[in-house]
Design goal:
6 helices; 78% helix; globular
Length: 129
């Protein structure tokens, strides 16, 4: 299977897992509830970028995903009536979030780093097969 398909499959698997993490009554500790959702979102972002740009190396995909995640987080500092109204919808909460947090950025970067390491490992295994 090629990298694009593997990355797309991982992306599609992470979406329902992340949504369930946030919406299902899993009775998670607040730390895991809060940052688990952020980790799944950022990992999904990494694998989506890898699926769309399969020729980019994992470090470059990670840099792109980290930039996008950071920009989305910083967008929470921008307030307009339309944007704030969208943020109160389910789609807005899942895609953009509502409140800025440096801790979210750290969670994103860690998830992206872990995803890039996994991607690099999978690529190295495929080259040796």
């Amino acid at each position: 299977m090629n990298r694009r398909l593997i990355s797309a499959a991982i992306t599609l698997a992470l979406i329902p897992i992340g949504i369930a993490w946030r919406l299902a009554p899993l009775h998670l500790a607040p730390f895991f509830y809060k940052y688990g959702g952020s980790v799944f979102w950022a990992a999904m972002l990494y694998w989506l970028a890898a699926a769309l740009l399969p020729r980019l190396s994992p470090p470059r995909v990670a840099a792109l995903a980290a930039l996008i995640a950071t920009l989305v987080e910083c967008s929470r500092l921008v307030h307009t009536p339309a944007l704030d109204a969208f943020r109160t919808t389910l789609a807005g909460k899942l895609l953009l979030g509502r409140f800025f947090s440096l801790k979210n950025i750290a969670a994103y970067w860690l998830a992206i780093l872990a995803s890039a390491a996994l991607d690099k490992w999978v690529l190295s295994k495929r080259r040796h097969v």
